[in-house]
Amino acid sequence: MEKIENILLNAATNAFEQLCFMFSSPDDEDTEKNLRTWVASIVNFSGPFSGKLIVRAHKGLLNVIASNMLGEEASTAKQQIDALGEVSNVICGSVLPQIAGVAEVFNLEAPKILQNSEPVSPQNGEKMVFVSMTLDEGRVELQLFIKEGLELLKEV
Q1: What is the pLDDT of residue 9?
Q2: What pTM does this model have?
Q3: What are the structural domains of the chain?
């Protein structure tokens, strides 16, 4: 699963850099102690294997994410939520072909948003990969859950 962690972290780093102009720095877990309100975007997927990707960001990051994506200084709450969902969608769309192979086809559902989100634990035999990254503006956590079709995973 370590290779999947690297794939997930690289996809997240690329998405935040390219879409949001936000750059990662060495992970600092002390940053999390001061962050109380998290928002999560969940992208469910199905295909050769199914599962979900959860991207959790501190609520204070949402305006920066949306503003940078839109090229505007201020953003509405809806734009902020949509921006987090779009970043989550891009990360998920990047990770799955790297894990399963580019010939495989996945169906991604529209992102769903959870306010005041806590980390989610694996259930019913799910496998979970967790990575976190510290951006200049705050911390982001990603959880990739894979439940059905684990035997189809290529060697990663």
Answers
A1: 95
A2: 0.89
A3: 2-151 (3.40.1550.10)
